[in-house]
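Before relying on records like the one below, remember that each one covers exactly one chain. Contacts with other chains, cofactors or solvent are not represented anywhere in the record.
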Amino acid sequence: MLENTPFDPVATGRAVIRSTIAGSLATLDEAGNPFATLATMATMTDGRPIFSLSDLAVHTHNLKRDPRASVLLVAPGGETGNPLAGARITLVGTVERTDDEHAAWRYALHQGKAARASALPGFHHYVMNVVSSHLVAGFGNIAQVPAKDLILDLSDCKDLLDGEKMVVEHMNDDHADAIALYAIKLLGLPGGAWRMTGCDPEGIDIATSTQRARLPFPTRATTVGEAGGYLKSFAKQARSLEQ
């Protein structure tokens, strides 16, 4: 976070959730004690965390018995140096299995090659329904962000939801050069094999094998046309910075 940027708890919390690839998942064991493990994750279009969990894992057995859980997510860059200097958010809610194909698709895109394990027998996808959160984003920047503010309302976004997969696949297949320019010119990130991993009303998620990033839209997009217009505008802006 830039030093003079006003603290926006909702935007910061959403950015942390979208940009992480793993978190500390805490479930309740048979005696009711907290049991924390590391779990890879992605997000649904609305921002709810998705996990791929093995039927053999202790945390999976715990969730089947009691779906209550919390997960601690740390923004990229906060894992090294002073671990308390980075933005992090704790989400509290319930985690339940889903057979939603869109959840599987988004998880696979976000995790890349690491998602191969989720295709093995005995692995299933789980979604967290968030009920509360606790955000810490630097000294004095602490907030309880209500779930209704943290998780997107998609009730007016059917066109974009229906077309998200098409938008993402089209950009990755035909406009990989533009995605790389988004990362390098608009976000100031290193070059690499950047790909789009999601498109939602507030922006797009992009990734390489080692990095995750978020590029927000200027205003909310509810249709494929609106999102496409922003992507074209981003490309034009990025190319102008090349000159």
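The chain has a mean pLDDT of 92.
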